[in-house]
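dumping this here so i dont lose it again. seq + smiles for fe (ii) ion
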Amino acid sequence: MAATVSHHPQAPKSIKALAAELDSQAPINPIYAFQQTPNIVNDEASKVEDGIIPIIDFGLLTSSNPEERAKTIQELGKACQEWGFFMVVNHGVPESLFKGIVDMSAAFFDLPEDEKMQFKGKGILDPINYGSSMNVSVDNVLFWRDFLKVFLHPEFHPISKPQGFSETAKEYGKKLREIAGEIMKGISKSLGLEEDYFNKALNLEKGLQFMAANLYPPCPQPELAIGLPAHTDHGLLTFLIQNGIGGLQVKHKGKWFNISPLPNAILANIGDHVEIVSNGKYKSIMHRAVVNNKDARISLPMLYGPNLDTVVSPAPPLLDPVTNPPLYKSLTYREYLELQHKSKIDGTSFADHIHIR
Ligand SMILES: O=C(O)CCC(=O)C(=O)O
Ligand SMILES: [Fe+2]
């Protein structure tokens, strides 16, 4: 099932091409205006506030001073439990590398439509996948977004255009992978598990890691469209950077918050597979992307997950038959992704679908 707007006969090849054709007065076609509940964006927009989310100092998390490290692990655990989102600072990734990957992604979306189409994917596990929208196979709607996904690990998949993209993606992927590994050790310890628990149980050495680039072109009627509907991320950790334009909203204690990351911080969130392994102690948090009528927004999520063929289950050392029985079914990451892809986006965390009732 091709995840592209060309699926709809009346639609142009990408949201970028559509946005370029529309003038600012053009009425938006309802196929871009899907919301899980009618007018969710309109109804809830007034409740959006600027959120202050926890900050994790990566230098302290990896400190050789045991007290500093222990204190930061505690803060990390609190951030996972209360927000599911946090900003990583003092991470050592040079600003030039952030700029490099943002610029390369912008250059990709600027390629002629026919050249981008060479990378059109067929399924969620395609290592290189360019398209628009989300689950075109099951949702009768399109979202105001074009995307590119590239798998970086356990195998690196080079993409031939634009020139220099692959080199930058490789370097960026390697740096973020090191950071993800340390954060997973911290999360493991914060749950009371041994530091290498996730690493060993989920075979993270051969874990899936991919980058995505999302382009949200300016939209003439942003209040009627949605960039990405509310969802949680699969996998363990997502790291997000953006081109300085806001649009991410996170649901916290029943309210939507606008998130504006600190410059050069990496915005991190935990995914469904941390929720499963922690047996629900840390929840994967709903988030969505809204669009605006002025600036093109680029966001770059990097997903770090288990090995595709490893079964993911609640961690046995955390369980107790009476006080903490397993709440989630055991599935391989691959099975989870395939099941999720067959399901309609319904505004719930997909982890809820494998909840043992
Ligand atoms: O664009 C954003 O800020 C959010 C992107 C996102 O949630 C995703 O790609 O999963
Ligand atoms: Fe997401």
